[in-house]
Design goal:
Length: about 325
């Protein structure tokens, strides 16, 4: 019953936000780098933060430092959606928020290189998650896949309060209802992509620290491969990697190859779920087998990525 109440509450809150966004003109106007052609409400992903807020109150204020970091991230990201803030201010808030997450995860009690490594990974994944939010449904499908995998593992290992995952997933389902369409009612905005990435990374961090097994980072393998190889290619072409672009594989598939964008989003989520589910099974094997699986998975994904992208560029771009 509590999950039904939360779902209905989130649905109503999303509709309320749409009224506010419409009233104050919080919109996303298409430009030459956009994958959409119509003006669309921006910031619908704020529902991810609201889902976490409901959990925070419901749970008796569990994970306070994590939630404070999430709140700071959500506020600065939403403000950037509306006003466009300076990069220095955003980076300062992101840095502070990541430190708060690290404190909640008790990484400060570990050797110094854990903090540096965690900081690089968390900041990198949050930015990658934001960059990958470029077509309808991709953030929703991918987040459902990752969140679902975490819920499955948590049902066995109890590394985090399951309600945080389930409340968040309910928020993703509500958002998907309005976004997983050919003509989306709303986009996630920075507030959505950053918030959901922050929540999922917190859960993955707790899982890795609880088990001591880094292989669970493969829960983010599909996004990781697309983001990393896209950056490598743009550096090779001497492009500004911080400037908006349309050179991710999913963008080439949707824009140049004219593949159905909802199908692309769905396939990204399904592929990540399959890889993650096999990863869960593989964790029962010895360390050497797990490493072999991880290396093989990343190698195959890289080969598929480079193969598809090269084919599309040669077939549709250069011609």
């Amino acid at each position: 019953m509590i999950y039904l109440i939360v779902f209905v509450t989130l649905f109503i809150l999303e509709l309320v936000y749409f009224k506010i966004a419409d009233r104050y003109n919080i919109i996303d106007k298409p430009n030459e780098r956009s994958s959409h052609t119509q003006i669309t409400l921006r910031g619908g992903g704020i529902i991810f933060y609201l889902a976490a807020l409901i959990y925070f109150i419901w749970s008796g204020f569990q994970y306070p430092w994590f939630f404070l970091g999430l709140t700071m991230m959500a506020i600065v990201s939403f403000a950037d959606d509306v006003l466009t803030l300076s990069n220095k201010l955003r980076l300062l808030i992101h840095f502070s928020s990541v430190l708060l997450m690290a404190y909640e995860l008790q990484i400060f009690s570990l050797p110094w290189y854990y903090l540096i490594g965690s900081f690089i990974i968390i900041v990198g994944v949050i930015n990658a998650y934001n960059f990958m939010d470029g077509i309808n449904g991709i953030t929703a499908c991918y987040s459902l896949a990752v969140g679902g995998l975490l819920a499955i593992v948590n049902n066995q290992l109890k590394f985090i309060d399951q309600d945080l995952l389930l409340f968040t997933l309910l928020g993703v389902v509500v958002f998907a209802f309005f976004n997983f369409r050919n003509k989306a009612k709303s986009f996630a905005g920075d507030v959505g992509s950053v918030a959901i990435a922050f929540i999922l990374l917190f859960a993955i961090g707790k899982l890795i620290l609880e088990t001591g097994n880094f292989i669970y980072i493969l829960f983010l393998a599909v996004y990781g491969i697309d983001a990393v190889w896209t950056i490598v290619r743009r550096l090779y072409l001497k492009e500004n990697i911080f400037k908006a672009h349309r050179s991710h594989l999913y963008q080439f598939l949707g824009n140049e190859a004219d593949m159905n964008k909802l199908l692309i989003s769905f396939l990204y989520g399904v592929l990540q779920f399959l890889i993650g589910y096999i990863t869960i099974i593989i964790t029962k094997e010895n360390f050497q087998f797990q490493m072999l699986f991880a290396i093989t998975t990343l190698t195959v994904l890289s080969a598929l990525y480079l193969g598809f992208k090269t084919y599309i560029i040669n077939r549709y771009v250069k011609s």
